[in-house]
Structures are given as structure tokens and as C-alpha cells.
Write a structure and sequence with these properties.
This protein is of the alpha+beta class. It has helices at residues 14-30, 72-77, 91-96, 114-122, 131-138, 140-147, 166-172, 196-208, 248-252, 267-283, 318-324, 330-346, and strands at residues 2-7, 34-39, 100-103, 156-160, 177-181, 191-193, 212-217, 222-229, 232-233, 237-241, 257-260, 289-296, 303-308.
């Protein structure tokens, strides 16, 4: 098959996405597919018209994720095409000629349903969930509203943080609390606040990231994540960060966190988190694959935090580890995602 692997874009998770895309593109080529790695934002800019994107080498430096999130203003300035479009030159045309588009995008640029909607209008099949489920899952508040009666989730409120109400929120929000931008991933902008000063800093950061923020009850427990692949829960994985919090740097730097898969938890816990992940997956209309995040305290109750519709496929990512625990290699995982996605698109999912 001819497969365009879309990565990059203008999300704070741009570097993670490029790493995922490079890995996926190589894996698909190794399995006999024609695969082209394309940056959603830059498109074919700077490439020779004679260069075949399906034959272009995959830059090996993309595989390693920088500890720092990218400077998106600098990224914008570096594109010759200074139009307001988030889609670079030649991207849609290339996608239109492909058999399927593998979405290796992460965050607001690609995981929020807009790219899915554009591809739907083009009539081009793509991997992962459809536009509506993707949009819902990207909104932490909307997701919680839909699943709160079906699974256990920490108490939360959603606010728009401004310079005017920052001090009031910093004084009145119950502690400890978790401050989360409503539509970011990779833990970018997330703060765990045990005191007022830390809470204030988290609220200030949320203003920089747009203001819309989830203030969530902090639950002390073990961090357990569960992927759903083609409708079935994979073995859970436990994250044990070396630092207090599994932040952006811990997620993508080898050795920064201990990851145990399958998680060493009682069988009844495994059953509960797997069922909860599938419940959320089905409730918001997802398809193909996703990864749900939980905190499980000593009583074994899985507290649902969020679900990611295009989870990372980097060298340190969790879904490939969970798949490997049941004998699915990285290449087989990519192939499974492609085949399940083509089936889902035919069924209108």
C-alpha cells in the first residue's frame, strides 16, 4: 500500500510526533509498504520536484525526542510559506493519492479531530478514531462529563484562567490539586500543586497555554495506563517516574521512569482498569486504538484521568510496550492499526 505518515505540525508535542512518525515510516517500509514521512506544517517545502517522498530517507535524528518542548514561534517563522494555514504545501495532494494516511500526529494539531475531518472530506482513509470521537477525547472536560457516570474520575472543575481571576483561583482551589490545560498532551503544562505558590505558578502557565484549564482533585496512587487495540484491552503498564511527576521530560528520555509491563498489580485491579478503559473507549465513540490513563490508590479503585486517541509510537512509548507483552511486534502493531483503521473507515467509524 501507499501510506502517507503525517507527523510534526504545530502542536507542543511536535517533536514527539516526529519521532513517532519516523519510527512508523521505517516499520511500514520494512513490511513492504511504500511509506512517505511528511511534516504536516512544512509539507513538501524545500523538496525537489523530482524527489519521490516515498523514497526519501527517514532522518534518524528525528527518533530522539528533545527534553524541551519546541519553540513553535520559531517553527512558524522558519517556514517559507507564511500563510496562516497549518497545512503545508503539497500535503493534501499527497494524501489524496495515498491508500491510507497514518496519523502520527499528537496534541491539538492532529489529535483534535480537525485533520480527520479534512481527510474525511477528501475521501481518504486514515488511522485511529474519527473526527468526533477525537475531538471529544481531546477535551478533558467534555470527556469527563460523558464518562463520569460510567467510571470513577477525580473531582474536577473547568475554568478559564485570566490575570483577573488568577489570585482568587490560587486562594480558593482545594489542595492538593492538579492543574491541566484542557487540550494538551504529553503532560505539557500540567502541575501537581501541594501548596499555594506551586498552584499559582501552574495557573500562570495555564494562561500562557490558552487559559482553559481543568482543576482536578489530586489522587495519590499508582499510575496505571491501559491501551485498547481493535476493541480489546492490552496488558496494563505501570509508570514509576524517578522524579515525583511523570512530566514531558520523564516521558521521552530513556531511564527517566521505570515502566513495568504487565503492571505488577492484583488480577482484580487488572480486570477493573481494562474494563474501565474499554468503557471510556466505547462511551465516546472511539475506534481502532487509544490509551487510557488511571491512578489507582490502595483500595484498587481505578480513577480515570484521560484517554489519548493517537498515543505515542516513539522508542519509549507505552502502547508498543503493551503490544509486545502479548507478542505483537512494533511492525505488527503498525500493520494492525492500518488494517483495523481501513475496516473502521468502511464501517463509518
Amino acid at each position: 500500500m501507499k501510506i502517507v505518515v503525517l507527523a510534526g505540525g504545530l502542536s507542543p508535542e511536535r517533536n514527539v510526533s516526529l519521532s513517532s512518525g519516523a519510527m512508523v515510516c521505517e516499520a511500514l517500509r520494512a513490511r513492504g509498504h511504500q511509506a512517505a514521512l511528511v511534516d504536516l506544517f512544512f509539507g513538501l517545502e524545500g523538496r525537489s520536484p523530482a524527489e519521490d517522498p516515498y523514497e526519501a530517507p527517514v532522518p534518524q535524528e528525528l527518533k530522539k525526542v528533545s527534553p524541551q518542548a519546541p519553540d513553535l514561534d520559531q517553527v512558524r517563522r522558519s517556514r517559507k510559506d507564511q500563510s496562516p494555514s497549518s497545512i503545508g504545501p503539497g500535503v493534501l495532494e499527497l494524501c489524496a493519492g495515498a491508500d491510507v494516511v497514518f496519523l502520527a500526529l499528537h496534541g491539538a494539531c492532529g489529535e483534535d479531530g480537525r485533520v480527520q475531518a479534512a481527510l474525511d472530506l477528501l475521501g481518504v482513509p486514515y488511522t485511529g478514531s474519527g473526527c468526533l470521537g477525537s475531538a471529544i477525547a481531546m477535551d478533558k472536560d467534555m470527556t469527563k462529563r460523558l464518562v463520569a457516570g460510567l467510571v470513577t474520575t477525580p473531582r474536577w472543575e473547568t475554568v478559564t484562567v485570566t490575570e483577573e481571576n488568577l489570585e482568587e483561583l490560587a486562594e480558593k482551589t482545594p489542595l492538593p490539586a492538579v492543574v491541566k490545560p484542557i487540550a494538551n498532551g504529553s503532560s505539557i503544562g500540567v502541575t501537581i500543586a501541594h501548596d499555594r505558590e506551586t498552584l499559582r505558578r501552574g495557573l500562570e502557565e495555564s494562561i500562557r497555554l490558552g487559559g482553559r484549564t481543568v482543576l482536578e482533585q489530586y489522587i495519590k496512587g499508582r499510575e496505571i495506563q491501559v491501551a485498547v487495540l481493535d476493541g480489546k484491552a492490552l496488558p496494563s503498564i505501570e509508570i514509576i517516574p524517578q522524579a515525583e511527576f511523570y512530566d514531558y521530560e520523564n516521558k521521552y528520555q530513556p531511564g527517566a521512569a521505570k515502566e513495568v509491563c504487565p503492571a505488577e498489580i492484583p488480577p482484580e485491579w487488572e480486570k477493573k482498569v481494562g474494563e474501565a478503559a474499554q468503557t471510556v473507549f466505547q462511551a465516546i465513540g472511539l475506534s481502532v486504538y487509544a490509551r487510557a490513563d488511571f491512578i489507582v490508590p490502595e483500595d484498587g479503585t481505578p480513577y480515570f484521568l484521560e484517554i489519548n486517541t493517537l498515543p505515542g509510537m516513539t522508542p519509549t512509548s507505552l502502547v508498543p510496550q503493551e503490544a509486545a507483552a502479548v507478542g505483537i511486534s512494533y511492525g505488527e502493531l503498525c500493520e494492525t492499526i492500518v488494517k483495523a483503521s481501513l475496516k473502521a473507515r468502511k464501517e463509518g467509524a
